[in-house]
Amino acid sequence: MQIQLPYGRGCLTAELPAGYVVEMVRPRAQTAAADPAEIARGAVYNPLGAVKPPRAGQRVAIAINDKTRPVPHAALLPPVLQGMRHAGVRDEDVRFIIATGTHPRMDPAEYSAILPESVLGTYRVSCHDAADSANLSYLGETARGTPIHINSDYMAADYRIVIGNIEPHQFQGFSGGVKSAAIGLAGVNTINHNHALMQQAGARLGEYEGNPARQDVEEIGRRIGIDFCLNAILTSDKAIVNAFAGAPDAVMRAGIPAARALYEVPVTTPFDLMIAAPGGHPKDINIYQSQKGMAHAALVTRAGGRLILCAACPEGSGNRAYENWMRGLHSHDAVLERFARDGFQVGRHKAFQISRDAARMRTTVVSELEDAFLRGLLLAPAPDLQAAVDGALADLPKGARIGIMPYANATMPVLRGGG
After folding, report:
1. Is the pLDDT of residue 418 over 70?
2. Whole-model pTM?
3. 53-226 — its CATH code?
């Protein structure tokens, strides 16, 4: 049988011979909204929870996700901007801030990749810099000890908005809600302390209420004071299925069940071989983002099994600190030992996440990256998907279970049965 997986802006194909048990693991099929703009409009004009509209004379700041997130701004933004104009808010009093967190900052030449030209020609747009301490405001500490440093331009606004999407997150449980501002517009120390909570019980895929990392994010969001949230639920092809707007906590309460119904997939038994892709561009824009797909796939791949990750990664690792920290390390055990010794730090945590999974299953990566670069990150390269498949099958008996996970970043595999 032929298999096909998204890869960058295209796809990869390979042939699987007969004699294996093959199972597709992907989000449930759901019809995209016929009129996504109407879905967004309906959400914005029927908000959930207690919200107040902006008023004339107020300064408004809108946090939006960067190029690593496939947020359909062209459909989501018009009702928000129209609503502000109806309320008397002047265009010159509205600014967009791209919430990069610790991701590389976007160059202004790249803004058109995430925002319509009509927005770029009308409103101020800037990109957050988590390392720019001069443009961070300190809001105290959370109950878990996270120092809260947030973009000062965002905090200077009278009315604050977040726009994004709700999907599975490997240790925050779910993205969405206040996270675009609480992490996306935070300082390095804030992000580092929050992300260190991923090591605690409950910080896992699909967990929200009992998740220490996510609940820390919620507290940061409350300290910021976010007035309005608009989040979309997307199909595997990044089309809008539904949208929720209003108070951030109300949006999450409504959006999480909808996201779970779409993205959660039951699996009865772990696979001997998993062939996974993060979901194509921008999910596989770099190793930093692609690792999420690897983590999700690992949840249903047996110890000692095989994983093939198809991720184009045209922008390399996505984090120079991660690359530098990996120098001189020659095994996944050495990575885990050094991480335990050096302590948690954003950047190197990506090395920990990869080695945590790669230490228990043989992992091969199909990408655009140079072989030597991948080997330096302790990832085994393959020249193409077919070669990776043939190599993996050479070690497996007939009848082995093979999983195909084409949209791994947005898939929540749940073992229910003999695993």
Report:
1. no
2. 0.93
3. 3.40.50.11440
